[in-house]
Design goal:
The chain is α+β, with helices and mostly antiparallel strands. It is built from ten helices and 20 strands. The protein folds into two domains: 5-49 and 153-223 and 316-379, FAD/NAD(P)-binding domain; 92-147 and 224-313, 2-Layer Sandwich (D-Amino Acid Oxidase, Chain A, domain 2), CATH 3.30.9.10. The longest helix has 15 residues, at 62-76. The structure holds flavin-adenine dinucleotide (FAD).
């Protein structure tokens, strides 16, 4: 272990998309050090997502829509030099429901219009033109949401980390935070790679945020790590699924989309877990295969690959961003659930603005965001 004590203006615990996006904004204002316990910064939730950009989320939740809108410009037009890859590749999103659940499509359409997300119904013939393998049960009519896309998560994450490293800032991997205490008006953060001093420590440790609070002797925000499974299924030789849409079942929670010549599918599971290196379970893999066979004409003989990750959220499903009310200089950036990638540009800007400017970014205020909606106080 390095015996020298290193100082920084901002110490960020966790190198996932939350920590990386905040670090990207903060490194414009001072020295940032990101501390990541794993050998790879995207090892946990960030590296396990479905990489979907969608303007509505969680049944068209208005707050999450604000955060997506506040991120869209960055994702569509990243700053010069940020990445050499497009971050978004547009893909139609269709919502399906069985014949006895058609009213749920009407309800969703109404909610989408309340948050100004355009959508339209198309008939079965048009739906099967978009997705030739759609099962007859879902061919009544489907709802199409405009503006959805695949995201290049690794280009976004790498872009953030690269920008931090191009400043005096650092991203230190294999640096597990083991102790945090106040020492003469500053925070001393001890890791397996050395000791660090800062005025502002940012807790962006994903599923582990409450453990980080515990070692800093602070009360938890009651984060709930919910496991979600993803399976990859091959399609028949000669079939090219790349142009197929992203498909979401409105009532059953599963979704699937083309990915690298295969189908990426999740059964929409959410099993409450302890913070951990989540692994898929046979039962959820089987549900994934079952739903894919139910919604399409495909027969799933073999699962090519599967994984699981944690969607970390608090009780109301909204993020938790702000200084701890009882500990000066201890900042929370947590609870990004299943929307942390598509909202990362806004979340990074919010974190930096609350830390440096003492308020929210004006464009997000104009969209209707208030500090109360994301405050730490509401979950303590
Ligand atoms: C299956 C699945 C599908 C998803 N699909 C989408 C999607 O389509 N679109 C979307 O926008 N979002 C999606 N998400 C959500 C998104 O992946 C998360 O919201 C996001 O990755 C959370 O980022 P994070 O940085 O908070 O957490 P993480 O990526 O988990 O990062 C936290 C980091 O903190 C580190 N850490 C923990 N303890 C310590 C310690 N003591 N010391 C140092 N470091 C520590 C961990 O090692 C970890 O790397 C999905 C999530 C899952 C699981």
């Amino acid at each position: 272990m390095n015996s020298k004590i290193e100082t920084a203006d901002f110490i960020i615990i966790g190198g996932g998309i939350a920590g990386a996006s905040a670090g990207y904004e903060l490194c414009k204002k001072g020295k940032v050090i990101v501390l990541e316990k794993e050998g790879q910064a995207g090892y946990h939730s960030t590296g396990r997502s479905s990489a979907i950009f969608q303007k509505s989320y969680n049944k068209a939740d208005p707050l999450l829509n604000i955060l997506v809108r506040g991120s869209e410009k960055f994702l569509c037009h990243p700053p010069e030099g940020f990445t050499s890859h497009p971050l978004l590749k547009f893909r139609p999103l269709i919502y399906i429901a069985s014949s006895d659940n058609q009213s749920s499509l009407d309800e969703l359409k109404q909610k989408l219009s309340q948050i100004d997300v355009p959508s339209e119904f198309i008939n079965g013939e048009e739906a099967t033109r978009l997705l030739p393998i759609l099962a007859p049960e879902y061919q009544g009519r489907v709802l199409v949401e405009q503006g959805a896309a695949d995201m290049d998560v690794s280009a976004l994450h790498e872009g953030y980390l690269r920008a931090i490293k191009s400043t005096p800032g650092e991203v230190i991997t294999n640096a597990e935070v083991t102790a945090i205490k106040r020492v003469s008006d500053r925070w001393q953060v001890t890791t397996t790679k050395g000791v660090f001093l800062t005025n502002v420590v940012i807790n962006a440790a994903g599923a582990w945020v409450d453990q980080i609070a515990e070692i800093a002797k602070l009360s938890p925000i009651h984060i709930r790590p919910l496991r979600r499974t993803v399976i990859m299924v091959g399609v028949e030789r000669g079939t090219s699924p790349e142009e197929w849409p992203l498909v979401m079942n409105v009532t059953e929670g599963y979704y699937f989309k083309p990915d690298s010549g295969k189908i990426l599918m999740t059964p929409g599971d959410e099993k409450l877990m302890l913070p951990s290196d989540a692994q898929p379970e046979e039962i959820d893999i089987a549900y994934g295969a079952h739903f894919l066979e139910k919604a399409t004409l495909l027969t799933v003989d073999k699962i090519d690959h599967s994984w699981a990750g944690l969607r970390n959220q608090v009780a109301d499903g909204h993020p938790v961003v702000g200084f701890d009310p009882k500990a000066q200089g201890f900042f929370w950036l947590a609870g990004q659930g299943g929307f942390g990638i598509k909202t990362a540009p806004a979340m990074g800007r919010i974190a930096a603005s609350l830390i440096i400017e003492d308020g929210l970014p004006q464009d997000l205020i104009d969209l209707g965001l208030t500090e109360d909606q994301i405050s730490v106080r509401r979950v303590k």
